[in-house]
Records
---
Amino acid sequence: MTTVISVATSVPVLGYLLSPLRRPGREDAWISLGPLSLVPDGRPVEVPYLTEVVDGWIRETVVRRAIVLRSDSDVPTVFSGTCPHLNCNVRWVDQEGRFVCPCHGGVFDRDGRVVAGPPPRGLDRLDARVENGVLLVREV
Ligand code: FES
């Protein structure tokens, strides 16, 4: 009887403890950014999106920003709008033709490469694909 009770109580507890390991990771989640036709050619456009973040046992939905750059390719380039230095939001500055981070002066060129400032690498890219005219991205 003790064994039955032990098994009966341990299964839910194990399920709870292992649940973050069983759930699909972010890499499996494609997120819709909407119709690609709304993104103009040649000019980066910021698109906010919601994503789920798991930190230990804390799971929350957060707003992130993608920067979509449409060119001749069928699938646009999509950058994370988060600076790889200390996670501030980068902005596209038309007059300079560059991405600028206001926090510590990070500057990135049109291809997301670091031009100036402390960022240790270029802007992260999101996987992107187009399905039925809708732009889908996923964080990598
Ligand atoms: S957070 Fe962007 S340069 Fe520091």
---
Amino acid sequence: MSETWVQDCRRQFPGLNRQLNGQPMVFFDGPAGTQVPQRVIDAISRYLTHSNANHGGKFQTSRETDAMFAAANRALADFVGADDPGEIIWGQNMTSLTFSFSRALAREWGPGDEIIVTALDHDANVTPWVMAAQDRGATVHVLDFDRLDGTLDQDAYRRLLSPRTRLVALGCASNATGGVNPVGAMIAQAHAVGAQVFLDAVHYGPHDLIDVRKWNCDFLACSTYKFFGPHLGVLWGRRSELERLTPYKVRPCSEELPWRWMTGTQSYETIAGALACVDYLADLGRQVSEDWQLERRPALAEAMQAIETYEMRLAWRLIEGLQRLDGIRIYGITEPSRTRERFSTVSFTHERVSVPQLNRELAARGICVWGGHYYALEFARRMGLETEGMIRVGLLHYNTEQEVDRFLRELAEIIESALVVEA
Ligand SMILES: Cc1ncc(COP(=O)(O)O)c(C=O)c1O
């Protein structure tokens, strides 16, 4: 039976009540976007009902918009572990933020400069850098991964780094294998040769505590719709760099942080929702620690610790269940002793039943999973999976053991009947 706090959490997510053909739907599609708690929906609705305005005006609703914006920036600074709310930049999504930021960063690159991207990353942390490097005549190196467990090749990384390296674009965790990269050590090595590091924390956000101070990265991007908020992206950067670099912006847009990186009108209603999703997680931390006085950052740390422990219990139940089925291949780490190197995102294929067929039949039974490469394009290519990809099961803290067991049962049935038809 799941912890009481999990049941309390589930009650807060109205989307989890959806049914299909009289059966509860199972939401294992978190890596592509999570459900949201009622307080996020309420915050968006309240903002649009009471405070809807552009920022920077003298009148009441505009002043309320400014106050909400300041509070949201403080919340997101707490979420990523930064001190300075001025370092939080909002945008449409991580991909768009990375494209526009890469253009500004690359203004300083030229022939002879080198950047490193990885073959494990989502393409949103690859192509923006590759295109920016091409524009400036800089060289791109692609860091490879181990074909057996999907971990980045650390020896190759050390060989690629040199005083010519300007930037390393690195994912905190893989949205294809669930593997967690040793970002702290990789950042230290990049800094030792004078390179900067841009982290993609999109897949990391819902599973563990992001910590820009501890990791000592230079820039980091994440998306609130992956951690129980609305469809919105967030970029964090060091103040000194955000002030020094030249953004692409219109002249009347303020030079102050964070505004100079957010040219054009923002989606204030979703920013109000993002504030509410961070507070949802902080309250979860206060609940599991039974300390309702906890400040937001330590409360987030408590929440993420409880979430990770719980999710990994589900993940091992799923992995062991998949391993009991004939013909399944799991991509990524499968040894319980390496539990700290992975999250609860599990991708697999079946040797005889195709990914589209599994995907279709799971969907028909109300089970939301993803089939394909989910933009982890280079991983899929190098694993020979570009055509069909893998089935990805993304487990979150609002999922349950019962859902994992139902998934395994339904999957076994689907495979069995597909093989009977084939025979
Ligand atoms: C690891 C990872 N990075 C980046 C992205 C792109 O994020 P966004 O949809 O906010 O552009 C995704 C989206 O799925 C992702 O999983």
---
Amino acid sequence: MSLADPLFAASNQIRYTTYLGRKYVYMRDVAAYYGMKYFIWQKTCGIYNKYSKIIFHYESREGSVNGFTVHFLYAPVFQNNEAFISEKDFLLFIDPILRNRAIPSHKMKTIMLDPGHGAHDKGGTGSIYQEKNLNLQIALKVRDILTSKGYLVYMTRNRDVFLSLEQRIAEAKKCRADIFISIHANIAGKSAINGIETFCVTPPGAPSTNDAKPVYKRERGNYFDVNNARLSYEIHKAAVSRTKSYDRGLKRARFYVIRNAPCPAVLLETGFLSNPKEERALGRQSYQSTLANAIAEGIINYHSALRNR
Ligand SMILES: [Zn+2]
């Protein structure tokens, strides 16, 4: 770590401790570092100021950032009336959200949209719609919005054709995509389940949201862990606030396309085809436009964070 490294300042001011073989930082010090207030109250701890609020819960990986649900890599640790959060959550997630300068800058011109599935690969099937068609309809709307804003937009597919996951990544490489956005819809066994969830790749040495075991292998997508955090947060925030859908949270997974992307990448699950109300909404032009505008807004907000470093 060098003096030029923005993390150097943090490493100097923030004390850490080791717990279960992992590094944890003092939440009190994290708050001081950002000039924020710190609290620990019963089974909740957090940092906040006028602009931002980050909440953790005892023995839970689920918390929130500015009111949006976030699945952290590790639960906080409470000891002697002091709260600690994992160093990975701090450096790879909280810091790039609170501080634009923490995000590595990159070109932001070429956007690759990836509507999931296609042709015989239908994705989830609801009682009216097939996922592959909804993904494409939404992605086409995102393309039009971003093109009108001056971005160069490519799509892994712009019609009903089959593409392997490998081909999707090859397309992103060929077009020299600056970011990669995969669009999907969900399906669940219970029809009551609904809402939006957004994924970025799990950092090496951490467990995915639906898993407890860490995976140590570093994948291509992990070169962009810090960017992935901010990009996925901006898209999740815009999608949940624009649609008013149930917020299932920003999650971590090692899905093929986000794990292998040659650039910052996000996979958005727009809603559940197994929920009748959400399925009908996803089929509506107006709701698709709302979603498309939200995705575009998230991308534009990420871009402006990069510009205002
Ligand atoms: Zn899918």
